[in-house]
Amino acid sequence: MASTLKQFKTRALSRPEVRKAYQALDDEFAFLDEVLKARAASGLTQAEVAERVGTTQSAVARLESGTKRHSPSLATLQRYARALGYRLELRLVKSRGRRVRSRRSADKAGRR
Q: Which CATH superfamily is domain 2-87 in?
């Protein structure tokens, strides 16, 4: 079955529109992977995390699922991290190949 899944993924990713959509979710998947690894390393169940956070198991499941309908606040993510014995670290990382001009720079360039 694993090889069938690999074949499906290879076939799907050979389509440019699928590959582009898949890559667009890369950061989100990486974050969710970190979340799940942290909970596994803590040895806690979703119910145990929920108790520590002060919420329900289903709320923790939604947070870990990464569904578009659920966008947790930074405060919620911080409580989740603390419940696992972690701290949340948020960073802005410059994208490769993207140069963003400020509005002020664009205005100056237009006046030249």
A: lambda repressor-like DNA-binding domains (1.10.260.40)
d(CA 65, CA 47): 15
Nearest to 93 by CA among 27, 21, 23, 22: 27
Q: Each residue of 39-64: pLDDT tens digit?
A: 999 999 999 999 999 999 999 999 99
CA distance 63 to 73: 10
Structure tokens at 53: 């956070």
Share of the chain above pLDDT 90, in %: 54
CB atoms within 10 A of CB 67: 10
Chain length of the chain: 112
